[in-house]
Amino acid sequence: MSRRPVMSDVAARAGVSHQTVSRVLNGHPHVSATTRTRVLAAIAELGYRRNLSARVLATGRSNVVGVVAQNTTLYGPSSMVQAIGEAALGADLSLTVGHVAGYDATAASRRIVERLVQQGAAGLVFIAPVDAAAESMALVPSGLPIVTVDGLPEWEVANVSVDQYAGGMLATRHLLDQGHKTVWHVAGPEQWHGSRAREQGWRAALAEAGAQAPPMPRAGWSAASGYQCGRMLARIPDCTAIFAANDHVALGVMRAMAEHGKRIPDDISLIGFDDVPEAGYFHPGLTTIRQEFAEVGRQALRLLLEQLATGARSAESALVEPVLIGRDTVAARPA
Amino acid sequence: MSRRPVMSDVAARAGVSHQTVSRVLNGHPHVSATTRTRVLAAIAELGYRRNLSARVLATGRSNVVGVVAQNTTLYGPSSMVQAIGEAALGADLSLTVGHVAGYDATAASRRIVERLVQQGAAGLVFIAPVDAAAESMALVPSGLPIVTVDGLPEWEVANVSVDQYAGGMLATRHLLDQGHKTVWHVAGPEQWHGSRAREQGWRAALAEAGAQAPPMPRAGWSAASGYQCGRMLARIPDCTAIFAANDHVALGVMRAMAEHGKRIPDDISLIGFDDVPEAGYFHPGLTTIRQEFAEVGRQALRLLLEQLATGARSAESALVEPVLIGRDTVAARPA
DNA sequence: AGGCGGATTGTGAACGCAAACATGCGTGCC
DNA sequence: GGCACGCATGTTTGCGTTCACAATCCGCCT
Q: Among A23, A37, A255, B330, which is least packed by CB within 10 angstroms?
């Protein structure tokens, strides 16, 4: 056999017309049981697979949704993709995930969006935790439904995020509640919306308590950068409570503190963000703010399906509440 | 405008035939400069995007490679996907990543493979660290090039893996070299080829040194399961050297040891596997075996491109050498 | 002057499928 | 017994693109 069998090959083999094969394939009514089994048998014998391109071309519908994601080795983004995939399984949707990789993220994401659009994706989900994502969104034809995850309200598209602002407040208040005079914050990268919101939540909680906001060192998301910041903070006697940008940064801070002879939580209380699976096994177990990614995925898909149904873009958005996970790194203020 | 513009719309607007538009789009020669600019202008004005389905249908070529991946929140698999994406950027290939998610991995991966095939993918990459992957590979038509990553030799398809066996030996030898009488191993999940190979490397290194292989507890890949195993090992006085299935398991072990008053590396030497970015910031910094994922990605794409060129499947495979990263969890055997 | 060749453009068909329409046949009802 | 209706199936058309081929135009050689 030289080339892949097509519908008419199956039809010939089963002794019917190609349209009957099509009907069987699509579960249309008005096909007799015997015909159906004959067709099915022919399909199996020939190893026939229908050509999706032809199908999409003929129907004009593709029911695949494209996902544009970057930094997919990070815990947050990879969990998001996973959650969306999980949620899409239920709806009759297929997912095509474009992973933005490489040094030139802008060019790569343009390229991915372009392909997704040309492929006829029914809708697009942007995992857009950084500003750069907005630019490639402009490439999307105006009719196509879009949902962002961790996007910005001013983009005026449907969006779902974890309420990072609330998370920042939660963390800060928890520390303040233990009697700490103020709380230091090791911030995440400036380009990430999440780190900005967490910072604002932190500031708001401090202001609300009448506490002074100390200077704010800035880390990446990595333990390495947390460690660098921690080495500074360890030398500041006033610093007794730290809210770290995420769990890995917190790990770096813990390391720096240990090297400096500062005990956690005795000398310093620490709280992270994310609740990565291993956070409970840090030494000591990390108190942190957990994000419910699965819920975010479900919401994102819900918003997309709504747009698919109405045929119009919406700017509706959803917020998912973070929750505090108490473990061993937070204690009452040292005497 | 009701529907998306098509090639003939562009042609009409530019005052040429649709074929000329096609030529411009595909960079064919023999189009005058003035015509080209007119066409380009019309494309821009109309916001035209070509319909990939139609193109694939007409040409029979798709130049997209499908990636089938699961457990994509784990460090290894997600790094692999990233690396392959990185490598594909160079070649004129697009990537469609299907993430197997959900409770029923078998059904999900069948579905993903099916769609990738129907979509006309030019080749498939299976991130196949577990046996279950083989089953969905059987669904792929025999003509389609396949490359597995972390697959099994007996599958007889092109494969690239990190040499986990060598990694296991490396880790074990390193511990033995410090004077430990033997090395304990906390194994990874049995279904994963990588954990089996690491175990075999461990056994081989022990045998080579004439050391007895102690009983082997089995963990998942998580810190939680490492912790459980660690709680047992901590009570065994003879246990002075541990090779953990991966870094997170090692973290759990560390936690258990600390709770039990065992000091690392003074009482117990420990070595992990993977070199996750934060491994150096565990307390103490974890000595581990690093896998070069970027290299694996490059090799995988190379093998795929070769098959694409020759048009025939190969069973050629490539091994990537792991490397020992020495940090603070390994010390000479306690007196 | 005729025509030849290369550059440029247009025309018709084909890709594989699904939708709309058309056909044939049996059944129930008056 | 004839007619209408519904089921099962076949035929035709079109989706948007590319490919193979045809047609035109221009300059230049013989």
A: A37
Distance separating alpha carbons of residues A298 and A93, to the nearest angstrom:
13
Closest CA to A277 of A253, A322, A247, A305: A247
The token pair at B116 is 């990738």
Surface-to-core class of residue B273, CB atoms within 10 Å of its CB (0-12 exposed, 13-18 middle, 19+ buried):
buried
* Helix ranges, B139-292 (H): 164-177, 193-208, 223-233, 247-259
Please indicate whether, in this complex, the C-beta atoms of A49 and B141 are within 8 angstroms of each other.
yes
Q: How far is Cα A162 from Cα A165, in angstroms, rounded to an integer?
A: 9
Q: CA angle B162-B293-B192, nearest 5°?
A: 50
Q: Which residues contact A207 (CB under 8 A, 6 or more apart)?
A: A213
**CA B72, B75, B79 angle in degrees (round to 5)?**
80
The DSSP 8-state label assigned to residue B280 in this structure reads G
Question: Which nucleotides of chain D are near protein (any atom < 7 Å from a CB)?
Answer: 7-12, 14-20
Residue with tokens 């070509």: B50
| CB-based contacts of B218, cutoff 8 Å, min separation 6 | B186, B187, B188, B189, B190, B229
Question: Could you tell me the domains of chain A?
Answer: 7-50 (1.10.260.40), 63-163+293-321 (3.40.50.2300), 164-291 (3.40.50.2300)
CA of A35 to C1' of D3 (A): 29
Closest nt to B18 (CA→C1')?
Answer: C10
Judge whether B160 and B299 are in contact, CB under 8 Å. Answer: yes
Length A129 CA → D12 C1' (Å) = 51
Interatomic separation, CA of residue A12 and C1' of nucleotide D9, rounded (Å): 14
The protein side of the strand C contact, defined by CB less than 7 Å from any of its atoms, consists of: A 3-4, 6-8, 18-19, 22, 25-26, 50-51, 54-55, 57-59; B 15-20, 23, 29-32, 34-35, 54, 57-58, 60
**In tens digits, what is the pLDDT along chain A, a chain of 335 residues?**
467 899 999 999 999 999 999 999 999 888 899 999 999 999 999 999 999 999 999 999 888 999 999 889 999 999 999 999 988 887 878 899 998 877 778 888 999 999 999 999 999 999 999 988 888 999 999 889 999 999 999 999 999 999 999 999 999 999 999 999 999 999 999 999 999 999 999 999 999 999 999 999 999 999 999 999 999 999 999 999 999 999 999 999 999 999 999 999 999 999 999 999 999 999 999 999 999 999 999 999 999 999 998 888 899 999 999 999 999 999 987 65
Residue B140 is classified by DSSP as: S
Q: Structure tokens of A78?
A: 């990879």
